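Sample entry (157 residues):
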Amino acid sequence: MRSMAVPVSIHCAKGTWHGVSKLHLPWLALEKRISESKSTLHVVTDRQGNFATITYEWEYEGRQEQGTIILAKSSDMTSIQFGWVDSWHQSDSVLHLKGETSQSGSMKARGEYGAGDEVWGWTIELAPTSDSLALKMENVTPDGEATWAVDAVYSRV
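Predicted structure, serialized as tokens:
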């Protein structure tokens, strides 16, 4: 029998989660930089446990937004890959991110995107536990400075 490729922590996180998502836009005036919305996140895996699909919904300025993360992991390594799209952040292409899983079950991956002539980075971190799931995203400047962009915490439904 083949071993499961999806991290155990994600396999155990299958189902629906509800929480609050915070969006950080540091270029706005101080009082408008952080917005909060209710958010729903859903985790499913394929039958063989080779990959997981994580979908989430959130709002910005009263408009519904959605995102999807496809997660794949080699069954004999700690390395992971994400494919990510989001109707607000990354709507015109799939961002490919590579990273690692930790012994605690969290995983963090980084990808790159172009902004004009510059190459920027983006990180996604998933940290599931038995009763919560955290989703964090960072925007990384061409100089390597990371600023949090999304901070969402979910509880099981």
